[in-house]
Amino acid sequence: PRPILLTRHGESQDNVRGRIGGDSILSEAGEIYSKKLANFIKKRLKSEKTASIWTSTLQRTILTATPIVGFPKIQWRALEEINSGACDGMTYEEIKRNMPEEYESRLKDKLRYRYPRGESYLDVIQRLEPVIIELERQRAPVVVISHQAVLRALYAYFADRPLKEIPQIEVPLHTIIEIQMGVTGVQEKRYKLID
Ligand code: F6P
Known about the structure:
The protein has helices at residues 13-17, 28-44, 59-65, 92-98, 100-108, 121-127, 129-137, 148-159; strands at 2-8, 52-55, 73-75, 142-146, 175-182, 185-192. By secondary structure, the protein is an alpha/beta fold. Helix 4 packs across helix 5 (100-108).
């Protein structure tokens, strides 16, 4: 069995402000997480000869991976957060106030709702296909540092959760989800590194 470790980036400045999307850097708590994560990975993958660290192309995931040393890092555009198009950079409150129809449509069908000039969860699931194929092909452990919507979709794939649940799956910050693929099926552990 080989592990796949899934985690969101450390808390970003936009997370603190409640703004979606964007390309902000880490908050202080996010930086602390990046160091704790590096420590955790060092111990967890101590006995592994090879492993790789996958991030998106957004700063917050690259910065979260920075303290990790000794393993190759790969950036994937396909691991970028759901594209919130016209709503990028807004808070949920601002969307509700300024674009009430958009807000309502998303509430009604979060899986299929597509942001104006952006993506839906279904779009994200589709663009993740090459990432999943490559993840399945890997023999060594992979650490995936990505974003909330993307990790919901990846997690659902490995944990065999139904499509309709995906937009609601809990993927908290500062938590590592370890997935073990064995002959007997999939096992899961969660490690919370900061409260
Ligand atoms: O708030 C963090 C974030 O990653 C946003 O960038 C993104 O739009 C959102 O979460 C996705 O979560 P939800 O689909 O619940 O809005």
